[in-house]
Amino acid sequence: MNIKPKEIAGSLAIAVLLSLSSCQSAAENNPPFAEPQPTVAYIEPKPEPPASPFPNLQAEILDTRNKETNSPLGQFDFKNFTYPLPRGWQNPDQSDLTLTNGRIVPVSAAIDEEMSDDEKIERRSQRRIGMSYMTTKFLDVTGDALDEAIVILTVETTGAAIPQFVYIYEWKEDKPELLWYFRTGDRADGGLKDLRFENGEFVVELYGQDRFLLGEVETGKITGDEEQLCCPIFFTRTTYKWNGSNFQMQKARLTYSITDPTSPPVDKMGDIVNAKEKSKK
Predict the structure, then answer these.
(1) Is 153 within 8 Å of 134 (Cβ atoms)?
(2) SS (HEC) of the chain
(3) Above 70 in pLDDT, residue 39?
């Protein structure tokens, strides 16, 4: 039988194709070896603490600014010290307040209606204000190139209110010498927001509209200043300058909006509100 060259070539081509197809099929049925992946241990995520619905009104007071000084005041133990009480907050016997390890427990001395008048008087005389140490800042608020200590205490009212007392001391004759002290209000109602020294002046910021200091106490609310105690929407910035014997308030009393930081401050808002109220009469 005669086999033509073309037939031989065709047979070889078919054989090659069948061989390639067989190899490809074997490769598909036997995939390359896959290296085992290392096992990763499952770590359960830590639960996030729920966000507080209320703002932290003490954040600026308790931050790390102005916490160090070269003055001997920086080594003084203000947690075990005696402080005078500002007007309106004195003990019945006019005694000063002495902290021990940063605290003095309040004495409420409850009164029963069945008590006699003398017993009620005796109980009231036993009442004592409670206080706890909060922090101390060191600032040169008098402009003498020496730091003063600004001690902040929190009143323990046995309730939710957190009014504060502020004491400013210089170092004189090897001991703290009191220059000024004052009381601030409760949170949105004149509570303390911040204290600092800027441009040669002592800056005090209180929550609320047109709230500033008169001697030992902060001013009361102006007409229309209705805010939730927890969540102030305004604060007032005032500045004070040491004249050698006391701190004098400078002219501006600027009320800022917390909810709209871009809005310009209003100077002496209380005067504006009072003028409007008078015009209505």
Answers:
(1) yes
(2) CCCCHHHHHHHHHHHHHHHHHHHHHHHHHCCCCCCCCCCCCCCCCCCCCCCCCCCCCCCCCCCCCCCCCCCHHHHCCCCCCEECCCCCCCCCCCCCEECECCEECCECCCCCCCCCHHHHHHHHHCCECEEEEEEEEEECCCCCCCCEEEEEEEEECCCCCCCEEEEEEEEECCEEEEEEEEECCECCECCEEEEEEECCEEEEEEECCCCCEECCEECCCCCCCCCCCCCCCEEEEEEEEECCCCEEEEEEEEEEECCCCCCCCEECHHHHHHHHHHHHC
(3) no
Establish how many alpha carbons lie within 13 A of residue 167's alpha carbon, considering only the half-sphere containing its beta carbon: 23
**Tokens 């030992």, residue located:** 216
What is the value of pTM for the model shown? 0.77
Give the model's pLDDT for residue 27. Answer: 47
Give dist(CA 193, CA 38) in Å, integer.
54
pLDDT surpassing 90 at residue 202? yes
| C-alpha angle 212-214-218 in degrees, rounded to nearest 5 | 50
The CA distance from 176 to 82, in Å, is: 11
**What are 50's two structure tokens?**
């729920």
- Report yes or no: 168 and 140 within 8 Å, Cβ to Cβ: no
Give, in degrees to the nearest 5, the angle at Cα 159 between 155 and 164. Answer: 20
Tens digits of residue pLDDT in 241-273: 999 999 999 989 999 999 999 999 999 999 898
φ, ψ of residue 162 in degrees (nearest 5): -135, 60
List the structure tokens of 72: 């001997």
Which position has the token pair 């966000």?
51
